[in-house]
Amino acid sequence: MSSTASRKCLCCNDMFHPDARNRRHQQYCAKDVCRKASKAARQARWLAKPENQDYFRGSANCERVRQWRLANPGYSRGKSTARPVVLQDVSNPQSVENETIVRSCTPFPLQDVLLMQPALIVGLIAVLTGHDVQDDIATTARLFINRGRDILRMVPGGPLVPPP
Question: pTM for the whole thing?
Fold first, then answer.
């Protein structure tokens, strides 16, 4: 095949000159729409193979990912950079006279903060347990939620109140 030979794009049917490095099998031109069609066709061909049909499903895949993450700790974490040290004068705390304690109107402010910070909770559980797999974090989160519910149902000086 000569280097000037052109062919018809399978997506837009326009004539194009294939790249010299993959001239023998390039079937789509370089337009964005055609590149997306090429990717979709390539993905469909890959998924049509019997060995790839359940590649991303099931407990075997979960275990495969878990084993890979155990073998590659810290892969998904960003590179740590040396943070500059902030130089500040030490300020001595000063007492305030006639300070009154203002109680919050909301009964559970901690819950409000935690509900607004799901990434904080997931990260905290991951750091405390050392797990990065979502299934392990979800199991631990369920244990924490159940324990918290038990604590919130407690009556001072009495047994746990049974759940409704």
Answer: 0.38
Return d(Cα 39, Cα 47) in angstroms, integer. 12
CA distances from 141 to 38, 62, 77, 154 (A): 42, 19, 21, 20
H or E segment and range at residue 8:
strand 7-8
Q: What is the residue whose two structure tokens read 């337009």?
A: 31
In one-letter notation, the amino acid at residue 16 is F
Confidence of residue 52 (pLDDT cuts 50, 70, 90): confident
Residue 4 DSSP one-character state = T
Using CA atoms, how far apart are residues 74 and 126, in angstroms rounded to an integer?
A: 12
Distance CA 139, CA 62 (A): 15
How many CB atoms sit inside 10 A of residue 9's CB?
21
